């Protein structure tokens, strides 16, 4: 699965890593996360997230937003440009998988996604 994701990411933008795409996908689904939340989801250190997010900020895909309630907290938020890159990646994924013979109904796709989410949840629980 990782090699599939890496292959797709390289087809879209050789300058972004799989981890950076993962951050974009997280932010596209929820809009804002703290670096700690991203580090936990990626199972990496805060310094690794800082390094990854610095690159995304420089590209204009992510911006830093200070918390309104805790001045020590900084949120990462996806920009319009970041949303566009994420949409392009998803579109490219659909194009590349279109002819692979996956003839799943919407219900089957939902079940597959739910199954993967349960597997990931259990893996995360086992790693704690």
From TrEMBL:
The keyword Lipid biosynthesis does not apply. GO terms for biological process: response to stress. PANTHER family: TRANSCRIPTIONAL REGULATOR, MARR FAMILY. Pfam families: MarR. Keywords: DNA-binding, Transcription, Transcription regulation. This is DNA-binding transcriptional regulator, MarR family. SMART domains: HTH_MARR (SM00347). It comes from the Bacteria. Residues 1-121 form the HTH marR-type domain. GO terms for molecular function: DNA binding; DNA-binding transcription factor activity.
């Amino acid at each position: 699965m990782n090699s599939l994701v890496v292959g797709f990411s390289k087809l879209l933008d050789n300058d972004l890593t799989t981890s950076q795409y993962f951050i974009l996908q997280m932010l596209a689904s929820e809009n804002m996360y703290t670096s700690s939340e991203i580090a936990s989801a990626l199972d990496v250190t805060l310094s690794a997230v800082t390094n990854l997010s610095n690159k995304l900020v420089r590209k204009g895909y992510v911006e830093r937003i200070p918390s309104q309630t805790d001045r020590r907290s900084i949120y990462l938020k996806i920009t319009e440009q970041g949303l566009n890159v994420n949409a392009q990646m998803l579109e490219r994924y659909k194009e590349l998988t279109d002819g692979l013979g996956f003839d799943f109904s919407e219900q089957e796709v939902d079940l597959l996604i739910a199954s993967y989410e349960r597997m990931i949840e259990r893996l995360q629980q086992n790693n704690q």
